[in-house]
Amino acid sequence: MSKTNRILFALAALVLIALFLGVLGYFSGFFYFSETLPCAAPPWVQVDGYVMTNFYVWYDKNANAIQDEGEPAFRGVTVHLGTESSRTSQKGEAQVWLFRPNCVCNCWKDVKAWMDVPQGYRATTPTEVMLSEADQLVTFGLTRAP
Question: Which CATH architecture has domain 49-144?
Answer without folding.
Answer: Sandwich (2.60)
